[in-house]
Amino acid sequence: MSYVTVTAADGGSFQAYHAAPPGGGKAPGIVLIQEIFGVNKVMRDQADAYAALGYHVLCPDIFWRIEPGIDITDQSQAEWDKAFELFNAFDVDKGVEDLKATLAQLKSMEGCSGKAGSVGYCLGGKLAYLMATRSDADCNVSYYGVGLDELLSESSNISMPYISHIASEDGFVPKEAQEKIKAGLSGNPLVTLHVYEGQDHAFARQGGAHYDDPSAKLANGRTAGFFKANLG
């Protein structure tokens, strides 16, 4: 596995971790959108896992405009403090533009079939929703996306299949926000909402405090089937 350089629409460039599928031939792509801890081992392992299913995966450094090369964990308070500092400084709109640039590069990469979707976790889940409303990705998946209730005015722009995995006890997405999300998205036939009862934020993060193996396997299986159906 390696890193590739992506050129931003407004100038500058940033790195994206590239995981390639086994064997030769054309394969579809996935833009993997990081959590607030950067392109760390959790994200690289996740990229490798999607690649093993038969996809070209790019996981871009979305914090590059603030501090390039962030690679921290969720295992210490100092790292959490750093992660939230980055989260609070992050420009969402510019981040989406960087993800669109990543998507365009992925679709044009040698070996990519030209079809590509996105999947994101936490902050990345929010950005995957915005990829559904603002990009030409062929499908998109959010895991416990934060702040979606404040972005529902864009939901009418969803024109390709979208899944949102919701943790019923998400400490970062209150019940009231969850109800707004369900009400705002459930009427769109392109949207599928999966609620994981009793689960907290980041239930699919390997090694995380709230990791739940059965729920993670269920969500990941649904995502794998969704990508296979919509990307080939």
Report on the structure:
Helix 1 links the parallel strand 3 (27-33) and strand 4 (56-60). Helix 3 packs across helix 4. The radius of gyration is 16 Å and the shape is globular. The longest helix is centred in the last third of the chain and has 19 residues, at 213-231. An eight-stranded mixed β-sheet has the order 1-2-4-3-5-6-7-8, with helices on both faces. The protein starts with a strand and ends with a helix. The chain has one domain (2-231): Alpha/Beta hydrolase fold, catalytic domain (Rossmann fold). Helices cover 36% and strands 22% of the residues. It has helices at 41-52, 77-89, 92-108, 123-134, 175-185, 213-231, and strands spanning 2-7, 13-19, 27-33, 56-60, 112-121, 140-143, 162-167, 191-196. With 232 residues, the chain is of the alpha/beta class. Keywords: Hydrolase. Pfam families: DLH. Residues 14-229 form the Dienelactone hydrolase domain. This is Dienelactone hydrolase family protein. One of its GO terms (molecular function) is hydrolase activity.
